[in-house]
Amino acid sequence: MTRVFSGIQPTGHLTLGNYLGAMRRWAEVDQHRADSLFCVVDLHALTVDHDPARVRRLSRQTATLLLASGLDPEVCTVFLQSHVDEHARLSYLLECVATDGEMRRMIQYKEKAAKERARGRSVRLSLLTYPVLMAADILAYGTEEVPVGEDQAQHVELARDVAVRFNQRYGHTFVVPRTTLPQVAARVMNLQDPRRKMGKSDDSGAGVVYLLDEPDVVRKKVLRAVTDSGREVVYDRAERPGIANLLDILAACTGGNPESLAAVYDSYGSLKKDTAEAVVEVLRPVQARHRELCADPVYVEEVLRDGAEKARASARPTVDAAYRAIGLLPPVTEPSLSAVR
Ligand code: TYM
Fold first, then answer.
1. Backbone phi, psi, residue 96, to 5°
2. Residue nearest to atom 24 of ligand 1 (CA)
3. Class of domain 3-181+297-326
């Protein structure tokens, strides 16, 4: 069975981008056809200035929303990254394989480091090495496929490069993973600035639909989406990014195709109205399930405990093999003959 791994950071409230680009596919497709693991990558949330209480709160909320989106712990593994030591253990080895130049080329590093500096904050070293931890997340599980949105493709490429290099130098240890992208909505854009990705850490929430936004808030945000001064509804991501974004969202929510949907509409207003209603309908069951799960926090904790146990058992042999391959002696578990003598 194909091994699938993906992760999500508890750095903010989850967005429609997270859902359409990644989570929905995990729940509707991946968990049923593959041996899959989905991880709340809480260690990654410490790479920029953070508030410990908020990270704890968001980690719980993110895990709850993963279950609310339909992940079923009977068929997949859901867990918190920090509960499985193998991630950090492997990350260090991969730091000895990846290069400084590779890290500095990462687009997200450049963007996030610039943002931290603009806020007068120093840049944490972990922000630079973050893609190596992400590679460790993936490689520890013998992952073949990594279902992510487009913004994470560069990081998965790096994981591939590191896996290939490690295998060439130290003998075959890791499966070389590949990215899988959704057919539509691989990059949902900010509704107020459609040339920018819709992100959970965006400064203003006006252009971001959060999974827990009330229906009326969703409607308001979509109806106020920035478009352009044209009138004709055409699907052109370069020239009409606002309209293309709405068509992508509508297509992803209704299972349609953005180009053919463009032909159906003769005004921006009706496109916005239908898109708003489609988003409200997609979020409705997730929000309802989220309310139920919030009433049963013990269940969520049990899922995470069992998930971590399964994940640990799955990662351990690969990470141990990497320790041996790179030249580290195994710890002695029984007294050796020389020690007895
Ligand atoms: P994160 O937490 O930013 O996002 C989680 C997932 O949501 C996708 N996504 C989007 N897709 C489409 N449009 C958007 N606007 C949008 N915003 C987010 C992301 O592509 C991602 O799939 N580094 C990762 C987390 C991670 C990870 C991993 C992923 C850590 N280790 C190992 C896969 C495998 C991140 O920051 O995702």
1. -85, 0
2. 8
3. alpha beta
What is residue 212's predicted lDDT score, i.e. its pLDDT? 97
End-to-end CA distance of the chain: 48
Longest dimension (CA), the chain: 88
pLDDT digits (tens, 9 = 90+) for 313-339: 999 999 999 999 999 999 887 766 555
The three-class DSSP label of residue 217 is helix
Which residue's CA is the nearest one to ligand 1's atom 26? 7
CATH number of 215-292: 1.10.240.10
Q: What are 189's strand-pairing partners? A: 197
Residue 184: CB within 6 Å of ligand 1?
no
H or E element: which one contains 40? strand 35-40
pLDDT band at 341 (very low <50, low <70, confident <90, very high): low
Q: Which atom of ligand 1 is nearest to the CA of 41?
A: 30
Answer for the pair 220, 211: CB distance below 8 angstroms, yes or no. no
Q: How far is CA 329 from the centre of its chain?
A: 35
